[in-house]
Specification:
361 residues, FAD/NAD(P)-binding domain, 5-stranded parallel sheet, globular
Length: 361
């Protein structure tokens, strides 16, 4: 029971402990006016753009996979999937009901089934063993994940035969054609075979490592990695009071303050939003900081008129190409090689991200 004359802390529930949700929770923890709960399907936060490095160097994941309790000491953390939102309450698959004054949804994309950090580290060990024991490797998908994995393997295991198959007409279709061509040339120089305009039918694979493409081409590989986009983590919302706030792509429609369409006390941040910009980690972190500020304003008595508005990020992209090189595109200017690699490729911003969470780099 609150003491006389002392306002009761407002209850904030954050669903999703990814790039956006983790930073939001860390920021909320600094403010004494909030009583927050994090609901996440896993016990850890992962620096997602470091995943490909962890596959070729599993020890790298010891810094990039972080238990929520490491950076949110003493916080209320529930390891479960959320499965309902009604009447200012969130329900979980384990049968709990958590009340809120403000709700923030940050479920991003569906990802790994691993629940604990040890499980995730073992998954990277298994991926690494698969790479090391294979002479030929098939990568399906030519977006940033597929390109970065192909580059990591080509740099760390230069004798491996790597084939990358992409259904699009060019790699990294979110950047301009010049940048795509530069990356294609870089991979070709590293002896990565790139097949464009085709997909792979995984149901046609056989025990001898034979795969068929959509054009009937046969590919031989000892193993494969599927690097296409994961589904948006919003399917569960279709059965909640937020079902009418989803657009045709399954993203939550938000205003400039990140409030979900039709609700005054529900926010959404990160990849699950319909904000018209590239879905990138550093932009999701900006979403988190805007919502943290807006929650503070509301809890301090604002009527919402002075809330911070978000301006979509400029079209900037940086794609790591192994340990030392990268492609950087800012507006229409594209650069590739060691200079942009100095910005990202060595540590993949892991130290910076850990520092944001109050941890040693």
């Amino acid at each position: 029971m609150a003491e006389p004359g002392v306002d009761k802390k407002k209850r904030v529930v954050v669903i999703g402990g990814g790039v956006a949700g983790s930073l939001l929770c860390k920021t909320l923890q600094k403010h004494r006016h909030f009583d927050f709960t994090l609901i996440d399907s896993k016990e850890y936060f992962e620096v997602t753009w470091a995943r490909l490095r962890s596959m070729v160097e599993p020890s790298f994941a010891k810094r990039s996979v972080i238990n929520h309790h490491e950076y949110l000491q003493g916080a209320s953390i529930i390891t479960s999937d959320a499965n309902g939102i009604e009447d200012n309450e969130v329900s979980t698959t384990e049968g709990r009901l958590i009340s809120y004054d403000y709700l923030v949804i940050a479920t991003g994309h569906m990802g790994s089934k691993c629940v604990t950090k040890p499980e995730k580290l073992r998954e990277y060990e298994a991926d690494n063993e698969k790479i090391k024991s294979s002479e030929s490797i098939l990568i399906i998908g030519g977006g940033p994940t597929g390109v970065e994995l192909a580059a990591e393997i080509a740099v760390d295991f230069p004798t491996k035969k790597v084939k990358l198959v992409h259904k699009g007409s060019r790699l990294l279709e979110f950047i301009d054609e010049k940048g795509s061509k530069k990356v294609l040339d870089w991979l070709t120089l590293k002896k990565v075979e790139v097949i464009l305009g085709q997909s792979v039918d995984l149901t046609s694979s056989s025990d001898d490592g034979t795969y068929k493409t959509s054009e009937g081409e046969t590919i031989m590989a000892d193993c494969y990695f599927k690097c296409t986009s994961d589904p948006i983590g919003s399917s569960w919302l279709k059965e909640t009071s937020l079902k009418d706030s989803l657009n045709d792509s399954g993203r939550l429609m938000v205003d400039a303050n990140f409030r979900v369409k039709g609700f005054e006390n529900i926010f959404a941040i990160g990849d699950i939003t319909d904000v018209a910009e590239l879905k990138q980690g550093y932009l999701a972190q900006k979403h988190a900081l805007v919502v943290a500020k807006n929650l503070e304003l509301l809890i301090n008595g604002s009527d919402g008129g002075n809330m911070v508005k978000y301006t979509p990020g400029s079209p900037t992209a940086i794609v790591s190409l192994g340990r030392r090189e990268a492609l950087l595109q800012v507006w229409c200017v594209t650069s590739i090689g060691r200079v942009p690699g100095m910005l990202k490729s060595k540590d993949l911003f892991v130290g910076k991200t850990r520092k944001q969470l109050g941890l040693k780099p």
